[in-house]
Amino acid sequence: MSETAGTKLPGSPTTLFDHALRLHRLTPGEPLPRNGEPFPDEASHRRRGLMAPDDRSLAGKDAALILDAHFARTSAPPGELADAFHDIYVPTHPNEHLAAAAARADPERVRRTGRWLVRRGTDRCAVTVGLALLAAAGTADDIPLIQTIGLLSHQFGPLAAPAFERLPGGVEALLWLAERVTGWGRVHVVEALCRLDDPAIRPWLLRRACDGDFLNGYFAGKVATVARLHEALAELDTDVEMVDHVGRLLCRMSDCGGMGRTLAHYPHAGVALEAHARRAGSLGPSVERYFTIAVLTQHLTTKSPEAMGCTPAQREALRATYLEVLDREEWTRTARAGFAADERRMRWLADHRAPELRLRAFPDREPAAEEQRRPGPRDRPR
Q: How far apart (Å, rounded) are the C-alpha atoms in residues 8 and 123?
């Protein structure tokens, strides 16, 4: 990732771009630690307390008016906007008012202003507006700039991801960013990839989209549908990476009600579960595999066949297949070793699995009074 031209003035605060670039260079192939937080402007935003207007249709209008006034003065330099947005609400998602302001101005000036704000902005509000301008009028030349600021994905992912959708080379840029973001940032990037529905993306979606985070539930069903999982199930016989990923995908879809498409509404749920169950047992044990199969088995135990997208006969056969794997000696040893090492997923299974789910790796237990509530997806470790 090359650094876009431009340097901060001597003695000025650190730009958010430089902050992202510095952290990226420390771990170039991985997400930034803590999504890059805290940002250099944290102190000025800690108690800011600006909320979106009650009438959401007005969100972004104040920022658009500032842009209109700025672009009306042909000689006004971009630097005048450096602190112009700090005291107003600036939407972090695509916004019709900001897009309209960009459309009303000269495209080259919009690009020049957006680039300056993203590259030199020391306040997240100004950088957000700059990114909105590039999302509306940027070119392929802006991809490295958008990628770098997009690494601060919780704040800038909602604008960075759709910005790539309209640019040549956007697919490759999105895949690059997807490998380096987590949490909400990953949601926005993977959803953008799903909207593109490009056949070239499907191998990545089938193997890499879900990283195990609870928020994967927002897009897991979209991934299964867009990647045509049901057409690729034969690949499980030879692709270990895909087996593990499909397990994570099905695990999220089994308990993401209110977030995204669940197994109950995925027409190929039964055959996908059967294909995973057949292959998963032929792999060696790991903590992640044990946890994935145990959670699927718990849902097959406690939920109706309809909720799992399968027939009653399928549910019983799947449950038996998964339990046979979990009860194997080497799998039991792996789970117990993880528990002894205080591995968070094994700890969760020991403490929160359904009482009716009996596993050799953990002693039988009765739920404590405070645990009578069935643990939900947010209770699970990431």
A: 13
Q: Which residues of 85-120 are buried (b: 16+ CB within 10 A; e: fewer)?
A: bbeebbbbebbebbbebbeebeeebbbebbbbbbbb
Q: How far apart are CA 198 and CA 375, in angstroms?
A: 37
The token pair that represents 264 in the structure block: 């109950």
Q: Report the predicted TM-score, pTM, of the whole model to 2 decimal places.
A: 0.89
Instruction: Name the 3-class secondary structure at 374.
Output: coil
pLDDT tens series, the chain, 382 aa: 444 433 444 445 899 999 999 999 999 999 999 999 999 999 888 877 788 888 999 999 999 999 999 999 999 999 999 999 999 999 999 999 999 999 999 999 999 999 999 999 999 999 999 999 999 999 999 999 999 999 999 999 999 999 999 999 999 999 999 999 999 999 999 999 999 989 999 999 999 999 999 999 999 999 999 999 999 999 999 999 999 999 999 999 999 999 999 999 999 999 999 999 999 989 999 999 999 999 999 999 999 999 999 999 999 999 999 999 999 999 999 999 999 999 999 999 998 888 888 899 997 655 444 444 444 545 556 5
Phi, psi of 106 (to 5 degrees): -65, 125
44 backbone φψ class: left, alpha, beta (φ>0; ψ -120 to 50): alpha
Matching residue, tokens 């973001």? 181
The total number of residues shown for the chain amounts to 382
Q: DSSP secondary-structure letter at 11?
A: T
